[in-house]
Amino acid sequence: MAEAMLQLKPGPPEPFSREHLRQVLNSWHWAESLEHPVPFPGPLAGEDNLITWIDAVKMHAEAREIPRQQWANAILSWIPAAEGGKDGFRERLLRTMRAKRAEGEWERGRFWNWENFKDLFLKLCSSEVTKNHRAAAVGSAAALPLIGIPLLGAIGFTSTGVAGGSIAAGIQSAVYGGATGGVFSVLQSIGARAAFPAVWNLAAGAIGAGATAAATRNNTNNTIDAIMTSEETPLLSNKHDLIYERFSSRQKKFLVAIVSWGGLVAFFTSGTFVPSVPQIAKDLNSTGEVISYAVSIYILASSCGGLIGSKYSKFYGRRPSYLWCLPLMITGSFGVATARTVPQLMVWRFIQAMGASPGLSVGAGVIGDIYKLEERGAALGSYFGMGLLGLALAPTVGGVTAHYWSWRAIHYGLAAFAFGALFCIMFFFPETSHPGTRGIDEYKRSGKKHSSWRPVMLNPLSQLLMLRSPNILSVGFIGLLALLTDFTLMIPLPYTIVCPISQKSPTLSLILSSQGKRYGIENEALIGLCFIPLGIGNAIGAPLSGWISDKIVIKYKKQRGYWYPEDRLRACLFSCYLPITVLASGLITKYIPGTRGLVLNLICFFINGMGCDIAFTPCGAYVVDVLHENSAEVTAAVNALRSLTLAIAVAMLLPMINNYGHLFTNAIVSLISVSAVLLTILTITYGDAMRAWVDIGYSTAENN
Asked: Is the domain of 506 the same as that of 604?
């Protein structure tokens, strides 16, 4: 029986992979200070103090379930590295460990034997003490007896003990408390015995030990630089890089996928509504014009929701913001699906938009949290690309669903889609905010009381003050004008072709008759397919532009020797052809009928979709770069500006097409979009001076 139990007894836990160990140690160093061991006391602190420190680190390592084979790595991570490439204690310890392994005294492999490591650690500390004793003794042996005893008596170390009210008594109370040790004990002993000759070397060694320990304590903050160390894993360069190593590359991609899902919820909620407007109007005994007010309500609510969600994500964290907003969106979707009157539809549409919209700004904040400057553009490109792909595909999905099922089915589907995102965030999404940077962390540090039954009251409109920055306002309009070219091509399709003439307003009948005859498309599902080239262009252009902008940042940073934020906007210039595609689409629509005209228009859609995101993505990454600590808030502020301005511009498109035709309307938009190119060039050239006009707390290379 005993033998069977021995066979069933589990062995030691499997060691972590290098990447996993790095993540565990990273999270440990960035945890609250209560979870840290006491700072490394220095190699001269004495064997008892060093053993106590080792045991404390080991206890914390066990609490974090670090396997015994890797406790040595945990010890090494809390020993500070020498500054400026000097040869410090940790460097000598590592060199000695490798030498022992090379000599065959330890087994070869990835892991250090714990007992052997402790013995070697203590022996090296002992040799450091001896070395410092000898060095100090040579310089102090002649001079110390002549001045030492009178000086010690003057500051309070007397033959009867520590004099009350003296300097020595103050030091004992403030620094050592009830217990004394190290330098203090030695000085107290000398003062009591008036006997320097017997303790010259010891005193000099103790003074050296105290100085070394003090210097080590002053450099404790630098221990984070040595967070992960072994003979196979290089040291991280600095604290700035470390914050972005909390998640592995695979985890980062998974987090981007989740926040992209949250962004798609917002874009699908917005885009699937328009194709179903005629069906909603008929079902609720209303008109298309009245139901179209829900579009304006959605834009207003999404602007407010984005500002609120981003503001609270800075205070409570990204994860709580998602967990509060998505249930609101799901509730609103069910409300829209079950609405029986127009007022009910408007109220629930407002709630639906409030819940869906924060995903756009908070998602950009998440990517700013986990990707460093030189990698951020590509990640944001993937994020924006997925979102704008959803914007282009949403009318297709909405048209097909409305045609074959009903407009109510669209919103039940949106609720299910949002629930999937909520499930992923609830079970697979960690908090990504940088440790200690949330508003609630500031509350805890300052000792402020936080109500447990209600959230802290914050002013979401305060984020709009960021728009007083010329740089932020400039890139906001650059992205706005790029999106306007997309909408100029998209809007006439669902409004002029999808619906039968009888369900259109008189102002749109003329457009419908000319376009319907030209392309001969009346089915909602088929017209929805016309948006696909635009969506594919968006999906390709965004990550491509993000990758290009990262390469440009790296290139110019290397050439200049410093980071110039506006370099990222150089990638926008690759979209300078947008005025041409918009104008070309207008010419094709007017002069080339039939299938050939439709195909050429779809080609224009694809090229314009790429160009739109080539301009849009670097602008989104730029605002995250220059206001990194407020990335979600500035993204929400820019989105609010863009949404409200686009709502006004889009409302003017259809009347212009009705009164002046496609070609004139597209020519005006083409001319306006030229200003975006000029604005980009001005911002790149004078970005530094523009930032100096209004300083709103821009980020630097050190905190980005």
From this structure: yes
